[in-house]
Every structure is written in structure tokens, then in C-alpha cells.
Design a protein that fits this description.
Elements (H helix, E strand, L loop, with lengths): L2 H22 L1 H16 L4 E5 L2 H14 L11 E3 L4 H11 L4 H9 L5 E5 L6 H12 L3 E7 L12 E4 L4 H22 L4
Helix pairs in contact: 1-7, 2-7, 3-7, 4-5, 5-6
Length: about 190
Amino acid sequence: MDLDGYFKEQFAAHAETVSATRDAVAEPFARVVDACVAAVRDGHKVIFFGNGGSAADSQHLAAEFVSRFTKDRVALAGLSLTTDTSALTAIGNDYGYEKVFERQIQALGRAGDVAIGISTSGNSPNVLLGLAAAKEAGITPAGFGGGDGGKMVGLADPLILVPSKVTARIQEMHILIGHMICGAVEQELGLV
């Protein structure tokens, strides 16, 4: 293996994806920020959910809301639907894994909240059902996806799509964009 070549190739691919993403997502990024600011300002919450690496991202971003991102400030209402193992396993066992986010949205979400479903493919059945439940409940059904957006297109609105088909590159952009949303929400709310 040419370790040096691999190292340089991965950084080059990352940089190329950063550039393409910057050009592609400015408008939906602003819309997600606006929705999150409006929700938090009105006493609502931002709900994150996804599978695997996207589950980790949802937990990470909810923690940034609740704790802090850049500076000490009041806690912001952020929630990850991937952390309650009892709920996840009960719903998975009783209703099927595809229902794990839908049921939690129905139980915990309220009109005026924002639900951010994260799926690199845009085709995760449980994420899609969670977004559909959000939409039905008057919750803004936002999404982070990649490539052509899969089945999230037309369901998640606003939808941030990373223009890549490589899962690792999409996930790298999702956490960058998630961090940017946290920072922008703090600034828009005058907290930093």
C-alpha cells in the first residue's frame, strides 16, 4: 500500500467535497437555520435522528444545543432520538425497527418543533417514517442527505444534500454543516 498516496488522496477527496458542498447547500442551510431559530425562539425544540454514524451525529448535535457550541450560554432545546435504548428496543421489538423514530416523534414531538432526519442515502425506512410523522404533526421535517437525496426528496423540506455518493465524505459534511447550524443558531439568537 502507498500510505502517503492514500493519505493525500483522502485529503484531496475531502477538499473537493467541501468545495462542491459549499456551492450546493447555502440556500437549504439558511432555511434550516431559520427554522431552528424560530423553533427555539418560540419555546420549541430541534429533534435529531439517524442510524449508525448518523445516529452519532444526531447525538453530537443535540448535545451541542443543550450544552454549548462556542461559548457559555443558555441551554437550547435539542433532542436525539437515538439515545433511549429502552424505547429503541421496545419499539423495534413491538412494532419493527422501521418505526423507532416515527413512534418517538409521535410521543415527543410537538407542532412548531424541527425534526432533522439524517441519512446518507436518503432511503433509510425509519428516518423516512420519522420525517413523515413529523410532517403530519406540524413539525418542520428537515433532512441531511447525500447524492440525489433518495426518498427524502419531497419529504424533507428543507433538505441539505451533500453532492457525493461516498458515505464517508457525506458524513464529514453532515457534521461540518451541523456544527455550522449550531453556531448560526447561537448567533441569530444573540447568545454569543
